[in-house]
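FW: tagging you since you asked about this chain on Friday. Here's the raw sequence from the shared folder, copied in full. Didn't touch anything.
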Amino acid sequence: MCVVLHGMHHRHLRPWELFAEDDDASSVMEMKKGSFDSFGNSNSYEDQPWIAKYDKRNLIRKVFDREVWIQEPALRQIQDTIFLQALLGSFILTAICVGVFVALPKGRFY
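HL: got it, structure written out here
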């Protein structure tokens, strides 16, 4: 989880969301199937057109992709909880490591 994006309550667009504008007509046709077997026998995405487009993007564009605001308040609360638990856990682990290294004076690890 990126701390900057978390602080702004943003998230990166997923690759299939980035290129969804191009495939709106084909996705509408797929939605009209009417059966529960909408994905076929396999749930594979390797043949999707967005994969080739996303692979062609350079690393900088992948890192600094477009962002959207997280609108769901429950999701923001879950992310806040995970972030605070990570901070608390890292503080406790750091305190234990410091206590171990300070308690061993003969090794001079401090």
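FW: The first strand starts at residue 10 and ends at 12.
HL: agreed, and The radius of gyration is 23 Å.
FW: great, closing this out.
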